[in-house]
TrEMBL record:
Entry keyword set: ATP-binding, Cell membrane, Membrane, Nucleotide-binding, Repeat, Sugar transport, Translocase, Transport
CDD domains: ABC_Carb_Monos_I, ABC_Carb_Monos_II
InterPro entries (alphabetical): AAA+_ATPase, ABC_carbohydrate_import_ATPase, ABC_transporter-like_ATP-bd, ABC_transporter-like_CS, P-loop_NTPase
Organism listed in the record: Cryobacterium arcticum
Signal peptide positions (record): none
Gene Ontology terms, MF aspect: ATP binding; ATP hydrolysis activity
The protein's name in its UniProt record: ABC sugar transporter, ATP-binding component
Length: 519
């Protein structure tokens, strides 16, 4: 039985969310044009669409972050007055990918922060009572937490589960008039971890809440959602029953055109000189890792969350310092003291967490995209502004950034379009070694294919491309071989002939003793 068929959507007649004719423009640009959306209680409803189609603007309108120009919203039959000032009191909770937990505090302390313990100086919190309430709530949700564990010890999926429990308590754990909006919650999770979160979403819906799932991972949408609303260019295009559609149809609605394959294929690779050689590399989470990547080759690195594939790209790029081991780039020793040294040696890293590692959010797109090469634009009288603008326009056009406005601040681009700017920034360097860390995180299927295609072109031109990802379908499609990490060590290597999504998952989940590394 799939998660979706286990649901009880259809038996609950209440409407959790009704959005009618919502509109919003930013300056001259229309972000939402007469958008309507209906989410029933007891259902998981997908909100889908290309990067920049208006999903976040819609959500932000519900929580008061954005003030819409026009439109009406009802939550469980009562009008929502906008701008919303306290969404929690109306039973609305938005759970973002960055879920705002404090690592050094315990689970209970984190839960307490948002139950406003600090504001209750005059009537101190009854810790025993809170503990009992949370234990009961988590029991109802079917999740288990040691309330005294430090949050830093939780896996990414557990952190997301905790965020859901926290939101439920905040909105009054006993009420069923709750609307959960999960904004790309699984984007950074490996498949088994994502499965736990999807399962939780289903349970929350089964308790009678309305759940909105914003995601670019359509396989998960097909698995867990009851219905989907697809937006395109600020409009709602269609509402479909997920059981009556296909992934290809959803993509066609999103893009306005059919897309036959979701991923490009790698260029033919028959061997080439090693551009990257890693020997016995160790860091905080990886231990004795050895592998190489050759000119023209696309190598994947994967593992379950926390197995070391998150740290490895930063060790290679000079952002973190290895504790042992050797790195060579094009035959020369290359333990970089800083990213600048790595870039000089022809290594580029497109990070997955663009907000933390990739984007200067206060800068313009033009400043971001030309940052690594700005010295090329110094003339007799300072920076040649026109030339910088022209170059940024060309680069952004190559990866299809929308809108192609180099003068816009990065904050004015949707998440996926920010990722495209980061891609453009690094591709222009024509790196010998291109490191891609979760390259399609938050990117719609059309743009993901285009970005990955750019990486394949780089490989065909002689770069060694290394892709670090928990998305096995992607790795199976674009890699010549994939290395699997388990507790920081390489435990398996799958060649092109044996590369399937299923084989990768099996390799990730198998105990090291069950698997041997290919010679
Ligand atoms: N603060 C802002 N100022 C100007 N324009 C903005 C601002 N925020 C969003 N936009 C524009 O509004 C449109 C809708 O953006 P929004 O972030 O809602 O898209 P999205 O569907 O959530 O995209 P993604 O999937 O990439 O997160 C985009 O064209 C974006 O550039």
């Amino acid at each position: 039985m799939t998660a979706r068929t286990a649901g009880r959507a259809g038996t609950d007649a209440r409407i959790a969310l009704s959005v009618r004719n919502l509109s919003k423009h930013y300056g001259g640009a229309i972000a939402l044009a007469d958008v309507s959306l209906t989410v029933r209680a007891g259902e998981v409803h997908a909100l889908l669409g290309q990067n920049g189609c208006g999903k976040s603007t819609l959500i932000k309108s519900l929580t008061g972050v954005v003030i819409p120009d026009a439109g009406e919203v009802e939550v469980f039959g009562s009008p929502l007055h906008m701008p919303t000032t306290d969404p929690h009191t109306r039973g609305i909770a938005v759970i973002h990918q960055d879920i705002g937990l404090v690592d050094s505090m315990t689970v209970l302390e984190n839960l307490g922060i948002n139950a406003r313990y600090g504001a209750r100086l005059l009537s101190p919190v009854n810790v025993k009572k809170e503990r009992a309430i949370y234990t009961d709530l988590m029991h109802r949700l079917g999740v288990e937490f040691d309330l005294d564990a430090e949050v830093s010890t939780l896996s990414p999926a557990e952190r997301a589960l905790l965020a859901v429990a926290r939101a439920m308590r905040l909105m009054d754990g006993d009420s069923t008039e709750q609307l959960f909006i999960l904004d790309e919650p699984t984007a950074a999770l490996s498949k088994p971890e994502a499965a736990r979160l999807l399962d939780l979403m289903r349970r929350v819906a089964d308790l009678g809440a309305g759940v909105v799932f914003v995601s670019h991972r359509l396989s998960e949408v097909m698995e867990v959602c009851d219905r989907a609303t697809v937006m395109r260019a600020g409009r709602d295009i269609v509402e479909v029953k997920v059981s009556e559609t296909s992934r290809a149809e959803l993509v066609a609605h999103m893009l306005g055109r059919r897309m036959d394959d979701f991923f490009p294929t790698p260029p033919a690779f028959t061997g080439g000189p090693a551009r990257l050689m890693v020997d016995g590399l160790s860091g905080e989470r990886v231990s004795q890792v050895s592998f190489s990547a050759h000119a023209g080759e696309v190598v994947g690195v994967t593992g379950l969350a926390g197995m070391g594939q998150e740290e490895l790209p930063f060790l290679l790029f000079g952002e973190d310092s290895p504790t042992a081991g050797r790195i060579e780039v094009d035959g020369a020793p290359a333990r970089f003291a800083s990213p600048t040294a790595a870039i000089r040696a022809g290594v580029a890293l497109v990070p997955g967490n663009r907000l933390r590692d990739g984007v200067w959010i206060a800068g313009t797109a033009e400043e971001n995209v030309t940052l690594p090469v700005i010295d090329r634009f110094f003339g007799l009288f300072g920076i040649r502004t026109k030339a910088v603008q022209q170059r940024a326009f060309e680069l952004m056009g190559q990866v299809d950034v929308s809108p192609n406005r180099p003068d816009y601040a990065m904050a004015g681009f949707s998440g996926g379009n920010q990722q495209k700017v980061v891609f453009a920034k690094w591709l222009q360097l024509e790196p010998g070694v291109l490191l891609l860390d979760e390259p399609t995180q938050g990117v719609d299927p059309g743009a993901a294919k285009a970005l990955l295609n750019d990486a394949m072109v780089a490989a065909a031109a002689g770069s060694a491309v290394v892709v670090f990802s928990g998305e096995h379908e992607l790795l199976a499609a674009i890699c010549h071989r994939v290395i699997v990490l388990h507790h920081g060590q390489v435990i398996a290597e799958l060649g092109r002939d044996s590369l399937t999504e299923h084989a990768l998952l099996e390799a990730c989940e198998a105990a090291p003793s069950e698997i041997s590394v290919a010679a």
